Amino acid sequence: MTQISTGRSTESPALAKRCYDLTLASVGLLLLSPLFLIIAALIKLTDGRKVFYRQVRIGQHGRAFHICKFRTMIPNADRKGGLLTPDRDSRITWIGGFLRKSKLDELPQLWNVWKGEMSLVGPRPEVPRYVEHYTREQRQILQYQPGITDLASLYFRNEGMLLRNARDVERFYLDHCLGRKLALNQRYAEQANLLSDTWIILQTVCPYWVGLLLIYAGTLLLALWLAGTLVYNSPKPSPAWDRFGGLSLLVVCLQLACLTWREQCRGLLSYFSVPELLQLTTALGCAALVLLASQWAAGGNWLPPSVAIIDALLAVFLLGGLRLLLRLWRERSEGPDDELDAPSARVGIIGAGGAGTRLARELVLTKNLRRKVVAFFDDDPQKWHKRIHEIPVVGMPECLLNDWSDKLDEVFIAVPDSSSKRFSELIHALQNSNLKVQTASSRIPFEVSRP
């Protein structure tokens, strides 16, 4: 994708981007060829059908081309259902589900990049049927070369989960997903460069949860090193260090597994409260007990009990302190919010920013209110499918239309910084439900009844 013209020649940026794409695509095809063979063999062994799937997409300047992917669905899936694929679609094969989750099904598109039909980073090409729905302004995105990944691919990484409960999947996609994707593509196009391309690629191959695990792993290794230093009174290598130093990776992996078990590897780092602290302590405490029990059962002495206990305490302190500092930094940068009253019964909160999360924290900590926050709904795609204060961020506010009326008693709109246009859109969207709605600026709930 080249930058929007600013009056100067775009030949140099275009040539640099083509060299960038061609180099990385060639290296990727060469280095990943063993992985290609493994995936192809798995598809053949589990399904016995074609390995690759080709589909017509609309590329640069409206030219059609065939995009190539590893096949993840049953043969003739497009004739047995729609073009869109919600999560848990029965047409997805067993191996296909894994390939979709890991995005490995997209790897054959490196061949499209090598041929010059696509770029590594650029607006994802749509099928002709959906391109027909583009407005005149949206069709401007067709002047750019399509890509394997883009901002929309990052934020809509779990698009299937957004579509899973939609009554009309295609209508929901056209009304609430397609426009957002094109807006993200246009935003990227206005500031595209090789540095931003590299950052998008890194985020694509290293999703949020991977980065979170790396941060946790580094912190846990630091805690283990400090525990060993305190017990042996020396940070330098010694025979005592050698007895358990080689197993430090095993210790950290066990702790990460326990943190994942307590769902501490899905939450946003800058949101931290008492429930998260309790889950953090429970996970690391269980890891310490497993270490001590396994050593006792094996009759070994590779990890002194004092190291295991001190390590668990330091890990809780360091991880909890890190998240608390990030929370304080976030709250300070957001500024103070008006005090909010809690809605009633099962609650959905529109807005996972400062106002919404303060409200959720109040409900969690104040038991006598007898309110329970079931889900967040937010326009920020970076928060989708993650957890804040142990509460899932389901997706965009329009996801409330997907069978959530039976799961909620009230919706609280906590978006004080939204435009009046967006606020009106939210109210209009809720008119087809009988949910009670309360705004952040009002203590008196108003009801949006069915017409």
Structure summary:
The protein has 451 residues and is of the alpha/beta class. The protein has 16 helices and eleven strands. It has helices at 11-31, 33-47, 94-102, 109-115, 128-131, 151-155, 159-163, 169-189, 194-205, 208-232, 239-245, 248-261, 274-298, 305-334, 354-365, 420-429; strands at 52-58, 64-70, 119-121, 147-149, 345-350, 371-377, 387-388, 391-395, 410-413, 436-439, 446-447.
Structural features, described:
The chain has 451 residues and is an alpha/beta fold. The protein folds into three domains: 195 residues, no CATH class; 127 residues, no CATH class; 103 residues, Rossmann fold, CATH 3.40.50.720. 49% of the residues lie in helices and 11% in strands. It has a seven-stranded mixed β-sheet with strand order 7-8-6-5-9-10-11, covered by helices on one side. Strands 1-2 form a two-stranded antiparallel sheet. The protein has a two-stranded parallel ribbon with strand order 3-4.
Summarize the topology.
Layout: H1 11-31, H2 33-47, E1 52-58, E2 64-70, H3 94-102, H4 109-115, E3 119-121, H5 128-131, E4 147-149, H6 151-155, H7 159-163, H8 169-189, H9 194-205, H10 208-232, H11 239-245, H12 248-261, H13 274-298, H14 305-334, E5 345-350, H15 354-365, E6 371-377, E7 387-388, E8 391-395, E9 410-413, H16 420-429, E10 436-439, E11 446-447
Parallel strand pairs: 3-4, 5-6, 5-9, 6-8, 9-10
Antiparallel strand pairs: 1-2, 7-8, 10-11
Q: What is the end-to-end distance?
A: 47 Å
Shape: globular
Ranges with pLDDT <50 over ≥5 residues? 1-9, 338-343, 442-451
DSSP summary: helix tally:
16
Order of helices and strands: HHEEHHEHEHHHHHHHHHEHEEEEHEE
Question: Largest sheet, if any?
Answer: 7 strands, mixed
Portion of residues in beta strands equals 5-15%
Rg over C-alpha atoms, rounded to the nearest angstrom: 25 Å
Mean pLDDT score? 85
Strand arrangement within the widest β-sheet reads 7-8-6-5-9-10-11
* Helical amount: 40-55%
Count of discrete structural domains: 3
Structural class estimated from helices and strands: alpha/beta
Tell me the number of strands: 11
